[in-house]
Here is the input.
Amino acid sequence: MWYQAVDSGRELWKVKNWDKYSWLTHGFTSRHWGNLALHVEDIADVITERERLSQYLGISLDSWVVGNQIHKANIQRVKPSDKGRGAVDHASAFCDTDGMITEYPGLFLVTFYADCVPLFFVEPKSRIIGIAHAGWRGTAAQIGPAMVNYFRLAYQQADLNHLEVAIGPSIGSCCYQISEQVAENFSQQSLSCSSDGIYLDLCLANKLQLIASGVNANNIFLANQCTYCNNSFFSFRREGKNAGRMAAFIYRS
Ligand SMILES: [Zn+2]
Here is the structure.
């Protein structure tokens, strides 16, 4: 249900089911698009990479909207006046924000990843869109259900029966060994044990939470791509804290 679109050697992952929405732009970058987050010293290089992605998509860099991610479940409703926040600096980004949601066109909502789970939200009838960053802490804090509740409470016109959620490339249960303390935050269904320890299926944990919060299971699209196994992704576990960050983005016209 996800596929790898390749443009001049740069893989971009997209949801097949969403190609039919001509008003929607979305995707998840591979390492071939470079590091897209400002956690490094050389910010100029990051801006150059962001400009390249913007140019490819035909969406200007001043349409980007970014939050400073802190692995919690805080969500911002994005308005046209927020356009450009965090596009070229940290200071103007939303504070302490891992989820964004909007009903407005022209806002390029972006979050960044190296193994954590990207969640993309589309309610196609009213064209409300959202995106959320779910590492294990954000998942334990139920950021997925928090996004669904935001659709339910903030948007009377949103139809949850039609809400679609895509779960993008992220570290798979094949590679995500966790401690017993971390495991305590998750149900047995998303954990597996082997002789060398406990492994977490963070995508499944998110999927189960989304279903429990009212999302139709048929409307959840998994990428089933492990960012640790697949070298075309950056991986925090594989490369350490200086790993580049990939972008998950969503935009409506
Ligand atoms: Zn793996």
About this structure: The CA atoms of residues 114 and 235 lie 5 Å apart. DSSP finds six helices and 15 strands in the chain. The chain has one domain: 2-171+222-252. The radius of gyration is 17 Å.
